[in-house]
Amino acid sequence: MKDLLNKHASPQLRHILAHPDSFQVQLIYTQINRDAQNRPAFRHYYYHVDKAVYFNPASMVKMPLAFLALEKLNSLGIDKYTPMLTDSAFSGQTRVRRDTSAENGLPSIAQYIKKIFLVSDNDAYNRLYEFIGPQTIREKLLAKGYPDVRIVRRFVPMTEEENRHTNPVYFVLGADTVYRQPAAVNTLVYDFSKPLFVGRQHYDRNDALINKPMDFTRHNNAPLQDLQRMLQSVLFPASVPAAQRFNLSPDDYRFLYRYMAALPFESDHPKYDTSEFFDSYTKFFRFKAGRGKIPPHIRVFNKTGWSYGFLTDVAYFADIKNKVEFMLSANIYVNRDGVLNDNKYEYEEEGYPFFKEVGDIFYGYELQRQRPHAPDLGIFEEATAGLGQPPVAITRGDTTRRRLAIVFTGHEFADGGEHIAAVLKKCKVPASFFLTGTFYETPAFAPLIRRLKNDGHYLAGHSGRHLLYCDWVKRDSLLVTRREFEEDLALNYRAMARHGIAAPHYFLPPYEWYNDSIVKWTAALGLQLVNFSPGTRSTADYTYPEMGKSYRGSDSIMKSVTDFENQRPAGLNGFMLLVHIGTDPRRIDKFYLQLEKLIRYLQGKQYELVTVPRLLSLHL
Predict the structure, then answer these.
(1) Inter-axis angle of helices 250-261 and 109-119, to 10 degrees?
(2) Which of 143, 255, 261, 448 could form a disulfide with 299 if both were Cys (CB 3.0 to 4.6 A apart)?
(3) Average of per-residue pLDDT across 390-403
(4) If residue 559 lies in a helix (H) or strand (E), which one and from where to where?
(5) Is 443 in a helix, a strand, or coil?
(6) What rounded mean pLDDT belongs to the chain?
(7) Average pLDDT over every residue of 104-111
(8) Minimal CA–CA distance to 230: which of 327, 326, 119, 107?
(9) Which residues of 133-161 are buried (b: 16+ CB within 10 A; e: fewer)?
(10) pLDDT > 90: what percent of the chain?
(11) How far is CA 191 from CA 150, 185, 201, 203, 219, in A?
């Protein structure tokens, strides 16, 4: 790592690296190599990393609190979108009843976490601190192997005693209080025996210049390698022992990935002034210097902190187009005059350029580095898909590319499952399965679900109980409330989680029937609604003779597919061709029995058969 830095460093970077006592640079570069099954292996390189050398972590402590808040919600059985109201019970505490940045005007853990990763919001951190409590923070992080991490302060002027006390909080649904947490006090005794002083002089809270170093002995502390390890444990949970993982659901992981990588302009709730909160506002490596633009094929999953002249970034880079990934973590101190709290730090002149140059050096190296296997970064691309785009239903992919996705939906029937799985394996074709919570919960279907998962197919949601969302005739007339929709979909995702299925970004509505409200509600959850591509009669494979004129036989369905392919200029390009995984016993002529014939026809027409995420990928 030293050789790489020395080979490419500019004179300014050489100067910084040549003065470790002044700039106190700590740097961790993590190389990631995948095996044939896409399992990552990590190799860490360290430059002057030392837990004994203190740096103020500033907003970096918000990251573990985001993880711990979700963990606590899971232990309580509370959804992260449930409104959380904060009361006051001790001096210095403030109440929260509204959050104008939220779509519904109410505060929630989800909304606070969004703001923490989008712009490093201080008040959001304070509310998580109060919900979890400093004693629980300490005990949980200690149990996960982080004895050196100390988080004992809000980001608001308070005494040490005030920071020991946390507010009462309430979780509510409408007029009902679903959980009430009383005020609490931290009774732990901390080891403050090691004095920590920084600088030559400092201004106190009364703006008086004090002619001695600033005392950080009783401040927050978070070593760089611990922060890097925490981020790795969330991005790659299987890479750390189970005891070191945060207790997160698959949907929590999806949610965190999405908002760790999201840029301020990509958020509507909260909405930000992008002249102040520009794209790279919290992306130090490679981009913040000069307010650099981030290419759409690159996503940076990270957390940054800046205070008292210290700058820190702990990041994972995923370049979807070039199949490049690595982790990079660094800290630097830029305070030439040695005076703290004067707001005169060399962030722009030395700090951000340092992160840009170091990031560019390692990114350039990773671009040309030979890997045993190219990484499949689909989980990260899917988690960030659609960011910054208006809510829409997607019914077809790129019509200029000769690829399509075969999609199966299921609720109460699975009679075709084993045959479908066998044909897909024989033909070496990946498919997408959108199944209801009822399907995932049916014990008899568990072996099939396990097989589909092991065979690498895409498994996603089709609602919890297959509700009809809107009227068949008056489509704009909803038959469910937003709360019913969200609770039903949450049931679907919990059922998937019990099978160890990563929370999918794409959702196909029950009955393939929805309206604009359903599209917007889906998008508000950070999900994307998709539906079959119209034009063929493949969706009629559920019909049976007793349905009269609505019935379609398998030969008729197959003909509708081939006719569409032959008669349209774009053929079936970008198509999502929907078939049911099982049908009513009254249908004897099962269309899924013609699956191999359908696949061979499509392959003969030179179509690439892919999953829905790959079909809709902008970079693959």
Answers:
(1) 30
(2) 261
(3) 96
(4) helix 554-567
(5) helix
(6) 96
(7) 97
(8) 327
(9) bbbbbbebbeebebeebbbbbbbeebeee
(10) 98
(11) 10, 18, 25, 26, 12
